[in-house]
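Sequence in, structure out.
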Amino acid sequence: MYFDYGGSHTSVTAACIHAGKLDPNKLPNSDDLMEMPYLDKTTPEDFGKIKHIGTDKNSNEIYALGTKGSQLRNLLDDMASLQNVSDQYLFLNTSPYVNNVLRVGGWLSRSASLPSLGRPLVMSGLRKTYPALCLLVETAYLKQTGTQP
């Protein structure tokens, strides 16, 4: 599960890379990005709701989540541990991959309800952070399969 503050940009992008909906070897254009489910469409009611993005090539379910906070990782890890399923889940915080262009664009688009101003910035910010998100996904995949990067 990939998560960030809003569950609308970096978490969805990383989850789509992992689920094979975006090619990690090709920088997506704006049309490719806008075709992703949930991208830049989160509403306040969506915070805390787990969104199914797809399935990876090993049949693992891939999800995205908007947390409206950055300290959720410990809660998610503890909940999985309490259920004795820690080895079945990876929780990856994509918030460190939110650059300033993406932050401003996301705020304009989602919080200020000005998507015509915010989306071009969101697209630019996502394209800038895309290679780093691909590395995060590759590392997660390798950890999931038990191999080291």
